[in-house]
Amino acid sequence: MRTELSLLVAAVVIAVGGFLAPDWLSFLLTLAFAKALVVLGVVVQMRVGLVTFGQALFYCVGGYAAGLAMQYLGVRDAFVLLALGVGVAVAFAAVCGLLLARYRDIFFAMLTMALSMVLFGVLVKSSGLGSTDGFNVSMPTYFGWEPSPESAKRVIFLLTVGISAVAAIAFHQLMKSGLGLVSEAIRENEIRVEYLGISPRAAIYANYIFAAGISALGGGLTAMATGHIDPDMAFWTTSGEFVFIAILGGTGHVAAPFIAAIVFAAVRTFAIQEAPHTWQLMLGTVLLILIIFLPKGLWSLVSRRKAAAIPDATTAATTAEVKA
Known about the structure:
This protein is mainly alpha-helical. It folds into two domains: 2-293, ABC transporter involved in vitamin B12 uptake, BtuC; 300-324. It is built from 13 helices and two strands; from the N terminus they run H-H-H-H-H-E-H-H-H-H-E-H-H-H-H. It has helices at residues 2-20, 23-46, 56-72, 78-100, 105-124, 152-176, 178-188, 190-195, 200-226, 236-249, 256-274, 279-293, 300-323; strands at 135-136, 228-229. A two-stranded antiparallel ribbon has the order 1-2. The protein is globular, with a radius of gyration of 21 Å. The mean pLDDT is 86.
């Protein structure tokens, strides 16, 4: 319960701080948290020993499902739009997962990227969906309540933080469950897991579906926050960005993807502002330095402090016993 309470307290603090912060900062945090949800999907699969370069597939599905439902079905409620995005993504993952659960290593990575690029190609060729330009998404309502244009962005920010907190707690519970423990065992030695009578393929399939659903949430929130969707949401570079954030944060804690997403968004924003023509070089340099000195991700800073605190506490206790 300690981790769950910490996540809830952190969400409340961020929500209050972001609500009082300037509009640009709350918008940056909204997009960072939405992308962190997709990164959670990447981390779920990394913990089972698989790297996906196609997680943007479900990020895009979540965004387009929300946009299409709003434009053609007249659905405007944010919660219904997000539920539709998750439902479509899970259904799609249930079909694709039957194939992908059979593959490992580079074959899994390339197949996930191929599926994402298939969706990208379909969207680019669909003139009815705006082709390469995509189309705009209107501001949603919330159980019939429509916020004013001035407060609409703030409401989406609060919604994103709330959903992120729930998703983080669910992810933490998943990692402590039997499926989470089996996933780590599969990463270490899949053959031994099979000898125990457990199906690695079924565990990978379940993780893939969970990752699809949580990634679709990120896509739907991004679509509502930016008011626009386009095929680039499914492009392979978008998937690469999610993998990069996952590596930047590490897999040691559920909070790592959120911290990494905020750092990534802040560094990129600063780089674009200070060096608009060479921002990619500046961004790459900063992130390369972080990876070289923190190969296990930003969360390793916290884990190092905890590891250092344990010997200190042990030494203090021993000293007290000797004195006594």
